[in-house]
Amino acid sequence: MGNIGHKTVEEVNKSIVYNDGNGQQKDNLPVAEIARKITVRILAESGSGSGVIVSRKGQTYTVLTCQHVLDIDKNGKYNVLSADGKVYKARFKVISNPQNIDLALVQFESKIVYPVVTLGNSNLLASDAPIFAAGFPNYHTVNKDEIEDTREWGTKAFRFTDGKVSMVLKDKSLPNGYRLGYTNDVKVGMSGGPVLNGKGELVGINGRLKYPIQGIEVFTFADGSKPSQEMFGKMEPLSWAIPIVIFRQLAEESLQI
């Protein structure tokens, strides 16, 4: 596993373009269509979450998700629901993660060619830039008094939202790598799903929801300090993601294994 100290800035920030296996890059597709094709649902016995296909080698696909999505099943048994409605058995792929970043990988095998996301450069995100989030919410609101479980909905449960970048933490980080705040409405179950820029490139991974009931305590930074009340007021109404540059520093080499 490579160490960030052995990479140049140019190497970390370089743009990697993946394709659909037939040499057709997906950059010219609308972002919503890209999102639908590269987003998967991760199903466990006791819950579910989302993920994004980040690599293909032969018939082996690698999916990036959140560690807390996988922690819902202590037996380590997962299935992946792909965009065409097929369900595959998945296995956990170990990566070196000394900083306890909330990211993890699973892999599945398929002879079908699925599109693979392009990894973007989250360092280039500017305030108010358009941003898009995708995933599979666990529940659908029927009305103010009723919600419906989406576990048996298949691909119908897919959700795509648009919004803007609101805050990128530079000098501090929330625990487990969360630094990217955005206005998109992200629901329970969309953790692990992709955050895409206007080109459809992966710039983050969903993981934290707006208005947590624990209040300011949830926004204690990784160094133990707390935001000011003014800053908390700006952070609370945002969804939060892990910028993709953190994954690239942590485990990009694992995509080649």
Secondary-structure topology with pairs:
Blueprint: H1 9-13, H2 31-38, E1 39-44, E2 47-57, E3 60-65, H3 67-70, E4 78-81, E5 87-93, E6 104-109, E7 118-119, E8 130-135, E9 139-143, E10 146-149, E11 159-168, E12 180-182, E13 194-196, E14 201-208, H4 229-235, E15 239-243, H5 244-251
Parallel strand pairs: 7-14
Antiparallel strand pairs: 1-2, 1-4, 2-3, 3-6, 4-5, 5-6, 8-11, 8-13, 9-10, 11-12, 12-15, 13-14, 14-15
**What is the count of DSSP helices, taking H or I runs of 4+ residues?**
5
Cα end-to-end separation: 10 Å
Low-confidence stretches: 1-27
Biggest sheet strand order reads 1-2-3-6-5-4
The total count of strands amounts to 15
Based on the model shown, name its key terms:
single chain, 257 residues, mainly beta, 6-stranded antiparallel barrel, 15 strands, 12% helix, 33% strand, globular, disordered N terminus
Describe the protein in words.
With 257 residues, the protein is mainly β. It is 12% helix and 33% strand. The strands form three sheets. A six-stranded antiparallel barrel has the order 1-2-3-6-5-4. Strands 8-11-12-15-14-13 form a six-stranded antiparallel barrel. The longest helix is centred in the first third of the chain and has 8 residues, at 31-38. The termini are close together. Residues 1-27 have low confidence and may be disordered.
In short:
The protein is mainly β and 257 residues long. The protein has helices at 9-13, 31-38, 67-70, 229-235, 244-251, and strands spanning 39-44, 47-57, 60-65, 78-81, 87-93, 104-109, 118-119, 130-135, 139-143, 146-149, 159-168, 180-182, 194-196, 201-208, 239-243.
